[in-house]
Amino acid sequence: MPERQLHLGYMHWLNGTHWGGWRHPDAPTAQAFELEYATRALRIVEDAKFDFFFLGDTLPGDIVGEQWVTTHNTGRLEPFTLASQLALNSSKIGLVVTAHPTFYEPYILARLTASLDHLSGGRLAWNVVLGASDLAARNFSLPDLGGAHRYERADEFIHVVRRLWDSIEDGAYLQDKRTGRYIDETKVHRLDWQGRHFQVAGTLPLERPPQGHVPLLYAGASELSRELTAKYADVNFTGPATPEDSIAFNTDVRRRAERLRGRVDPIFFLPGITPLVADTRARAVELYEELNELLPFDDDIVEGDQDESYWSGPDWARIKASRFPLPKGVRSVRSLSERVGADLRPLGVDGTVKPDTADRFNDYGRTLLTALAQRTGRTVDNGGVRVRDVLGASIAGNFPLVIGTAEHVADTLIDWFDRGAAEGFNVSVPHLWEPLERFANEVVPILQERGVYRAEYTTDTFRGHFGLDTPPNSFAAPDPEERSA
Ligand SMILES: Cc1cc2nc3c(=O)[nH]c(=O)nc-3n(C[C@H](O)[C@H](O)[C@H](O)COP(=O)(O)O)c2cc1C
């Protein structure tokens, strides 16, 4: 076996990550509140020896509006509760739970994560997120998420959580029947934390988690996100568009990490990927185009469902500038035209985009054409780009699809891995169950045959799967930074 092994996570989205996927005739009707639905996915990926099963979490601002795009946000179980059940239904695979520091107290989060790390035998990781809408904050007596301040709060939050995990050292519980000493008081520590955002007297009533510190995941590519990843994260799973972008990002974050940590720690970069596998490339492309046909569009697909005044109003200005998927009500050739900078309405939805029209596309429009060429082989030059293809590409969801045979998908992953653009991938699928089963049953065996992926688990903790050392306890062996912090 070669030294360097690729890592795989499975990002469990209830209906997959293609916004039309749940309507596919073979897709199951999702049972968000039934354990069996999640455990079916868990079994598939643990059998395929994945490093981890990943539960994202976003608190919806508008459940009714979400149904047209991110259907998984319309109803989901609380992630710690679900993860504790998943722990009972698995034995090796890592479990990633998402929690937004803005919506927790560090003491509560430290207690939840330490408890689950104990109960899962050291398989937990915490995905730190700072996304979602200001509307979500209003469920927590907050006017909004706090803008850039939420990163500063998250920084102090993570520091306090790590200190709390350390607050009772390994071996503190003596339970010595002979002497009557229940706990070794020299191994119990108080934080007395007086910070800008938090005041925590400290001592978490739990022995240090089996992994010492529960590993941290983070996604995000802005300046503040890079600093947070560099300071704390073990795994980053942001979605760079090309291997070159990924290498530039990884190099930058690793350089920052060295500065902030004062040492070289491993940080694993696992870009997101959505494979769509079929027996032939042509069939895989056909599947993708079938999914695009299932996207909910405006009733008037060409002119759209809005009045003329809408297109110069504030709602459209906000949506047009947003990175989020287009909501229902603006899914038309009209809205697409506004976004790509060329009026496509005269072509109709089945018209072909000719070079003179494509030449007028703005940067966003050109990005769509590039994605379309990669996904389907349709280009303006080969006369294959219809307006409906561009429309589909713009609202299908912006997950990085890799479409083709199992060999093609495996080759793509190995190419990124070999070039140092990724240590592995956080895999999502366009819909369930077939695309997940095909990835697990057809792509993973190729990775195993090529010697870049484990055929059996060799450890049974999250840290173990990644070869991450357990950090020293900051109270037992305080380093100067922890003492002064
Ligand atoms: C692939 C990916 C998945 C994410 N999943 C979530 C999530 O489940 N919940 C959430 O609140 N934010 C989520 N986020 C948002 C990030 O936590 C973070 O707030 C955002 O990426 C910050 O972006 P920035 O680069 O502008 O700082 C996700 C981001 C990415 C890139």
Overall description:
The protein is of the alpha/beta class. It folds into 2 domains: 7-276 and 401-466, Alpha-Beta Barrel (TIM Barrel); 296-395, no CATH class. The chain is 38% helix and 11% strand. It is built from 18 helices and 14 strands. The strands form 3 sheets. It has a 10-stranded parallel beta sheet with strand order 11-10-9-4-3-2-1-14-12-13, sandwiched between helices. Strands 5-6 form a two-stranded antiparallel sheet. Strand 9 (216-218), helix 7 (223-232) and strand 10 form a beta-alpha-beta unit. Helix 7 crosses helix 8 (243-261). The longest helix has 19 residues, at 243-261. The protein is globular and about 90 Å long. The two termini are 43 Å apart. The relative contact order is 0.15. The model has no long low-confidence stretch (mean pLDDT 94). The chain binds flavin mononucleotide. Flavin mononucleotide binds at residues 56-58, 98, 100, 129-132, 219-222, 224-225, 237-239, 272.
Task: Summarize this structure as a short list of keywords or feature phrases.
485 residues, two-stranded antiparallel ribbon, globular, binds flavin mononucleotide
Secondary structure elements and their pairing?
Blueprint lengths: L6 E5 L23 H13 L4 E4 L7 H4 L12 H10 L5 E6 L6 H14 L4 E5 L5 H4 L11 H17 L7 E4 L4 E3 L9 E2 L4 E2 L15 E3 L4 H10 L2 E2 L6 H19 L6 E2 L2 E6 L3 H13 L20 H8 L11 H8 L14 H4 L4 H14 L10 H9 L5 E4 L1 H13 L5 E4 L6 H16 L12 H5 L13 H5 L1
Helix pairs in contact: 3-4, 4-6, 6-7, 7-8, 13-14, 15-16
